[in-house]
Every structure is written in C-alpha cells, then in structure tokens.
Write a structure and sequence with these properties.
Elements (H helix, E strand, L loop, with lengths): L1 E6 L4 H10 L10 E6 L10 H6 L1 H11 L5 E4 L7 H7 L4 E3 H10 L5 E5 L5 H11 L5 E6 L10 H17 L5 E4 L8 H8 L3 E2 L1 H15 L6
Parallel strand pairs: 1-2, 1-3, 3-4, 5-6, 5-7, 7-8
Helix pairs in contact: 3-4, 5-9
C-alpha cells in the first residue's frame, strides 16, 4: 500500500519539507508515503487563480497514478481541486486544510491559523465558513512572506513566533494551525515557543490517510 502526497506548487524545497514532515509517519508494514511536486503548478499557490489553475493538472496526475496508490493527499492549504479529485477516483483523497482544521478541533476549543500572506486570508475564511466551524475559529494572521521565501529560516521562524503568540494572547487561540505546507519544518520549535499545540496540516492529512487505508474506510457516496 502506498499514499501519494502531492505538492501542487512547483517549488521543490517545499516538497522536501513536506517529505521531512511526514517521516515520523513512515512505519514498518506501511503504507509507504511518496511525496511529489506538481511541475505544472506555480512557484507558490497564493491566489484564487493559482488554486483554480492547478485543478486540471492535479486531476491528470491522480488519474495517471490511480492504480499505483491507495490514497492521495493534496498538500496545499487551499485544498485545490479537492472535490473534483474525489470525483475522479474511488480512493481516499485528503486535503490538508480540512484535515488540519479537524485535527485542531480535537486539540483545543478555538483554533487560529498562520497564513503566508494577507491576501490568502479571505480565501481561507470562505473555507472555514463552508466547513461550519466559524464559532470555533479564533482568527488568522499572516507572516507576509511569499512561499518561495519560507526557506529563510531566521526570517520565517521569527515571524511565525510573533504571529503565533498574537493568535494565542490577543485572539484567544488555544491551538494553532500552520496555513501553508511550506511551513512544515517549523512545527515543533514553534510549538515550544508559543506554548500551545501546533498542527502541521500535511501530517494531519497523512495521518488520516493512513487510518483510511489500514482500516479500509470508504467515503460516503
């Protein structure tokens, strides 16, 4: 059994960070976890047009790989093409935003989100509303660093700590979700710094995918 984790942007450094983040979930007896980059994607998915633009390449990739994999994870916090891809395969398809938020709800009463850019937030808020969890949502704040610059560890981690503390202290978040797969490497040190649970959403999605595969849970409809 194998799970395919797809980074829908074309930045290989993000895919490497995702691969490192899911390493603790690799275990004897599987399922194996493969991470790939969608080469047709933009360097970072930062607008609704970016989200919409990767749907067809994602569908093509999943259809090509459908016989090889038992589940798919879309590793972008906008969950691009999630429902379209679910129509294209009978295998489980997990989106990291949906899974990250659902995991956060089991760790605390009110969750906050660290976004990459201010312009990402309206898109995320629409999703929170669609999921029906607005009453558990504490707030979302940006680090204002583009995806391709998230590998600047000193700059990125410093801003994430600032934003994480603001979500906890000013907005009342008792759990924080990292709102971009490119932030994966910072989860544990960020949690240590801000003093509340931090959810890395790709880990959350892959964990759910493993359960779905090993327990043979099928989707309703």
């Amino acid at each position: 059994m194998r799970i395919l984790v797809i980074n829908p942007n074309s930045t290989e450094a993000v895919t490497r960070g995702i691969d490192q983040a899911v390493e603790p979930l690799r275990m004897a007896g599987g399922p194996a976890i493969d991470c790939v980059t969608l080469k047709e994607g933009p360097p970072g998915i930062e607008t609704q047009q970016h989200v919409d633009g990767v749907v067809q390449p994602l569908l093509k990739l999943v259809r090509e790989k459908d016989l090889e994999y038992a589940a798919f994870v879309i590793a972008c916090y906008s969950d691009p093409g999630l429902h379209s891809v679910r129509e294209a395969t009978k295998k489980p398809v997990l989106g990291i935003s949906e899974c990250g938020i659902l995991t956060a709800l089991t760790l605390g009463h009110r969750f906050g989100v660290i976004a990459i850019l201010q312009k990402s937030i309206p898109r995320h808020l629409r999703y929170v509303g669609a999921m029906g969890v607005t009453d558990r949502f504490a707030g979302e704040l940006p680090v204002d660093i583009p995806v391709v610059e998230l590998s600047d560890e000193k700059k990125t981690f410093g801003r994430m700590v600032e934003v994480g503390k603001a979500l906890r202290q000013q907005h009342g978040a008792d759990v924080v979700v990292m709102g971009c797969a490119g932030m994966a490497r910072y989860r544990k040190p960020l949690q240590d710094e801000i003093g509340v649970p931090v959810v890395e959403p790709t880990q959350a999605a892959v964990g759910m995918a493993i359960a779905r595969v090993r327990l043979n849970w099928n989707s309703a409809g």
